[in-house]
């Protein structure tokens, strides 16, 4: 399942329970991997009737696990639905025809469900999905788009011979930002010597199971602090980044991917710091360096916010 002709449909759940409303949004993806799995464990009690004392006994079912990874294009028309699936509730502002939709980390975890068609008569459905990690990769371009990768932890997977009922809204037409309106802004300076990079926002999630002996999970919850780490790739023409790393200087980082002044995506990391690391330099024509960084929250700011500049008044899965 590779290439932008592949689509999935995603919808929102009011809680961890299976959704009653099956309206969902179709989106293009490069690939979807993973699902619900279960390993065997040794069980000498259930084995019973042993022939000898050294051969393996019949296995018992182990506890299941459920995780899927989706690679999708950083399309300015479709990215808002991925932000809603990962971060949950938005704050909308603006008036027709220009709206802004803001998502921030640290909010209540949203549950979503997802369906994808494998072949005619073969469908997979994933319920109770919660976003575990989101990576924005500016260096991994594919079919004209920067690549994104999202991993979700889920509660259960179901197969079926037909698609779910309910209204499926067609995927918005894929749309690229304009090259001249794309920039990485470091310490309020646009562009500069930054030529690439990526960042990953990751949550620590746990699937909680009922104490009823079935091992069936009933919720996905956060079990620790999230992290936001990444790398910046620069042309080494000055010592700005190196000096900031040595001095442990706090900076702000913003990624702009715009089609126009009122259409596109923005990602804001208001508090970040470059790590002081050994200088890794390479590049065919000029000296290039990679710097690792880490971001954090403050009383006033979440560690990460994403803003969609859109013609849609709401970003809804219906």
What does the model show?
The protein has three helices and 22 strands. It is mainly β and 318 residues long. It has one domain. The longest helix has 9 residues. The chain is globular, with a radius of gyration of 22 Å. The mean pLDDT is 88.
Overview features:
7% helix, two-stranded antiparallel ribbon, mainly beta, 20-stranded mixed beta sheet, globular, 318 residues, 3 helices, single chain
Oligomer: single chain
Order of secondary-structure elements: EEEHEHEEEEEEEEEEEEEHEEEEE
| Tally of strands | 22
Determine the mean pLDDT: 88
User: How much helical structure, as a percent, in the residues?
Assistant: under 10%
Could you give a short account of the major beta sheet? 20 strands, mixed
Q: Outline of this structure?
A:
It contains three helices and 22 strands. The protein has 318 residues and is mostly beta strands.
Task: Give me the secondary-structure topology.
Elements (H helix, E strand, L loop, with lengths): L5 E8 L10 E6 L1 E12 L1 H4 L11 E15 L5 H9 L3 E5 L2 E7 L6 E9 L2 E21 L2 E9 L2 E5 L7 E2 L12 E5 L2 E2 L3 E9 L2 E5 L7 E6 L4 E9 L4 H8 L3 E10 L2 E12 L6 E2 L5 E8 L9 E6 L8
Parallel strand pairs: 2-11
Antiparallel strand pairs: 1-2, 1-7, 3-4, 4-9, 5-6, 6-22, 7-8, 8-9, 8-10, 8-14, 12-13, 12-18, 14-17, 15-16, 17-21, 18-19, 19-21, 19-22, 20-21
């Amino acid at each position: 399942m590779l290439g932008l002709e592949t689509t999935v449909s995603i919808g929102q759940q009011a809680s961890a329970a299976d959704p009653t409303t099956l309206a969902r949004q179709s989106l293009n993806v490069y690939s979807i991997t993973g699902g619900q799995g279960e390993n065997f464990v040794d069980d000498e009690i259930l084995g019973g009737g042993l022939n000898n004392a050294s051969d393996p006994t019949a296995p018992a079912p182990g506890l299941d696990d459920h995780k899927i990874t989706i690679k999708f294009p950083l399309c300015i028309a479709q990215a808002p639905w991925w932000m809603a699936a990962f971060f949950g509730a938005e704050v909308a502002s603006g008036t027709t025809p220009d709206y802004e939709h803001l998502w921030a980390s640290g909010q209540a975890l949203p549950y979503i469900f997802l369906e994808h068609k494998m072949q005619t008569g073969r469908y997979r459905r994933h319920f109770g999905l919660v976003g575990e990690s989101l990576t924005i990769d500016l260096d991994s371009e594919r079919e004209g788009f920067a690549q994104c990768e999202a991993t979700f932890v889920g509660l259960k997977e179901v197969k079926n011979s037909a698609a779910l009922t309910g209204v499926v809204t067609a995927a918005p037409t894929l749309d690229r930002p304009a090259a001249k309106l794309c920039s990485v802004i470091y310490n309020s300076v646009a562009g500069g010597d930054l030529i690439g990079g990526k960042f990953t926002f990751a949550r620590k999630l746990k699937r909680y199971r009922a104490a009823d002996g079935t091992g069936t999970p009933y919720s996905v919850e956060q079990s620790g602090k999230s992290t936001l780490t990444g790398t910046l790739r620069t042309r080494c023409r000055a010592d700005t980044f190196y000096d900031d790393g040595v001095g442990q200087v706090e900076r702000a980082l913003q990624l702009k991917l715009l089609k126009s002044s009122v259409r596109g995506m923005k990602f804001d990391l208001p508090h970040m710091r470059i790590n002081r690391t050994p200088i890794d330099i390479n590049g065919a024509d000029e000296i290039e360096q990679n710097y690792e960084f880490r971001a954090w929250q403050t009383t006033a700011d979440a560690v990460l916010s994403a803003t969609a500049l859109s013609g849609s008044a709401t970003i809804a899965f219906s």
